[in-house]
Amino acid sequence: MTLLVLGLALFFLLHLVPIFAREARSSVMSRIGALPYKGLFALASISSLYLVYKGWTLTDPVFLYETPGWAYHLTALLVLIGFVLFIASNAPTNIRRVIRHPQLTAILFWSAGHMLVNGDNRSLIMFGGFFIWSLITIWGSNRRDGEWEKPDKVGLVMDAVTVVIALAFYGGFAFWAHDWLIGVSPMPVT
């Protein structure tokens, strides 16, 4: 459990630096250069994710609550919404006119869905951590960036393309990659 918590803490703290420690970040970048800073940031991020992975695999799950049967369907919907928002965050869509931080909001949907269907201690720590981190990051980003200037309106075709791409990624991940990467099928056959 210690490695899991350490990995999550490192990941979250690293990703809060650009929001809450901009001056320190700028100071380090001016001393070592932007490219080395980005390289060290990427290396530290990958290391933190490795710690999360190792911590997850070494922690014996202790179940704290039982998942209701309907939760799997709701989780599938929440994660699908997360996929759409995640793809929309990097595309010119009208979704970005409605939701200021679609990528962070996607993480909220993803983590909430996973907490719903995973009633064990390590899941609550990991997905709960991502949920809280996303809320803090949204709040900090709004505070840092000031008033929201919404992007220009785009044609509905861009929204439709984004949804189709998200559905394709979601389908591939839900029906194949999740089981291959994580070892658990999110689409139980019952």
From TrEMBL:
InterPro entries, sorted: NnrU_dom
Describe the location of the NnrU domain by residue ranges.
3-186
What keywords are assigned to this protein?
Membrane, Transmembrane, Transmembrane helix
Regarding the membrane, this protein is recorded as:
Multi-pass membrane protein
Per the annotation, which location comes first and is thus the protein's main one? membrane
Give the subcellular location. Answer: Membrane
Q: Where are its TM segments located? A: 70-89, 123-142, 154-177
Q: What is this protein called?
A: NnrU family protein
What organism is listed for this UniProt entry?
Kordiimonas lipolytica
